[in-house]
Design brief:
heterodimer; A: 380 residues; alpha+beta; four-stranded antiparallel beta sheet; 10 helices; globular; B: 257 residues; alpha/beta; nine-stranded mixed beta sheet; 6 helices; 27% helix; ETF_b (chain B); Rossmann-like_a/b/a_fold (chain B); electron transport (chain B); Electron transfer flavoprotein subunit beta (chain B)
Chain lengths: 380, 257
Amino acid sequence: MDFSLSKEQQMIKEMVQDFAEREIKPIAFELDRDSRFPEEVFKKIGELGLLGIPFPEEYGGSGGDTISYAIAVEEIGKACGGTGLSYAAAVSLGSSPIYYFGTEEQKQKFLVPLVKGEALASFGLTEPNAGSDAGGTRTRAVLEGDEYVINGEKCWITNAGYAKTLTVTAVSGKDERGKNIISAFLVPTDTPGLTITSDYDKMGVRASNTSQIVLEDVRVPKENILGDPNKGFKQFLYTLDGGRISIAALAVGLAQAAFEKALQYSKERVQFGKPISQFQAIGFKLADMAMEIELARNMVYKAAWLKDQKKPFTKESAYAKLFATEMAFRTCNQAIQIHGGYGYMKEYEVERYLRDAKLLEIGEGTSEIQRLVISRQLGC
Amino acid sequence: MNIYVLLKRTFDTEEKITLSNGKINEDGAEFIINPYDEYAVEEAIQVRDAHGGEVTVVTVGNEEAEKQLRTALAMGADKAVLINIEDDVENGDQYTTAKILSEYLKDKDADLIIGGNVAIDGGSGQVGPRVAELLDIPYITTITKLTIEGQNVSVVRDVEGDSETIETQLPLLVTAQQGLNEPRYPSLPGIMKAKKKPLDELELDDLDLEEDDVEAKTKTIEIFLPPKKEAGRVLQGDLADQVKELTGLLRTEAKVI
């Protein structure tokens, strides 16, 4: 057992913290207010190599581990939840499936520019009628000669408005038992028939781009199928297992930001003749918040470590996501409570953390789905 | 070009500093590259990229300083040297550090040596000039601009908010002032590559130095925190009376006039 971070992990933490503090935090308020995706920040994130952390050098990555990646998500998320979400989605959902399941040719063509930070990619899974029940996917892909023709609709797709490539899931046939076979396809966003709109007006993570995708007779070459044609469903379940670690890390970052604000405020705010931090009612809240953050972070690191050790991590990443995101909601809520009336004002920023945190209990598998994943892992 | 950077690991003065038993509490303190030395690292990398050569970062300290050296390597320096004095020197001062650095540097044929103009912990600003003296090369402190053409060097230095341009030649030692450049963040590939870059560790023995050779010339008598800031006072009443009251207080209470 060794709970200390390696020198590289510490250096990454300090660098990202420094970068996020200087380049993201000062604009976080404005990004939320204007619901603006900070392209200029993503350019810098790319230049620093942060989009390539968990990928090997042969694809332009840094050869870092999942723990380093989780640390980066936490630090960016601490500065701005929306930017953190877009960062996490770009790596875990945009690049990872191509790295996990792509052919060498697909990796060279699609993954390398992503890892180098020259482009973003998105993962199109959710549909208006297929959310938690991804098996209910209605988008269809039909093989016509050398091309797949894809028709359907995807919703709430992170970063799609700025993506160069989409990984889209679609029903490509039926198995011998008559069940839908779901496959994944790589679709460049300049393909004719593809319409991407970003009109959603969201409660939180407003700096993150969220888009709707309509596919009308979108034609992609046969070789753009990603991984095993018959295992698209299993592939995205694996992709989501990895994504959960990053969403949990993001939750830890948001909670840490809210906690630090609340702690500072409670030491400065004087009522009844002393700082409110000295009242047990407030001090105990802060104790709970600090403890829960640390527990969640440990779970994130453990799930990331299991993934790096190539051990099963499905259950642990669900633990991490479920606990960290619900913890983040509680912590951000208490941070507002500690701030009292001031906390309800946007200027004090803690209300933004709560709005951002809410999404984390929904996106990449709701809390209910996490409980389902865990209970199935337990053999229920 | 053979470039050396003098780097110090310091505690982060933006964090809260506490004392115990007359010493600064190191537990829980955050340690960083002295911010002025970060400008030095950045400048060294820029000079190397423009003129070729190699950047070596040197520090005098203990094992813990390896992290700061690795960070400089991650920013782009080529080599690092840790002169570990943990076992040999108990209480060093600026003389100690300068003596060790100059012994290390004397046979290195350095063209350019860059340090920070001051360390934010001790704040003496002496090590750079002392090293130059001992090496018998010119030095310029608090520089905000460095231009090198062949052996000729043009430097702009900060003189209490004004600036002074100085022309000189290599070899040279300069110390960096804020404004010299904007230090880069170590990139991810940089951090991963830093692992594989050479980091040598030396002790006094390796420099043919005895403990007596580097014994401190100064003695620390006491370390204390500045007094807590008292609440301000707002004077009331007629302006003329306020001025009179203020001058009276400056004389009798603050005793500054």
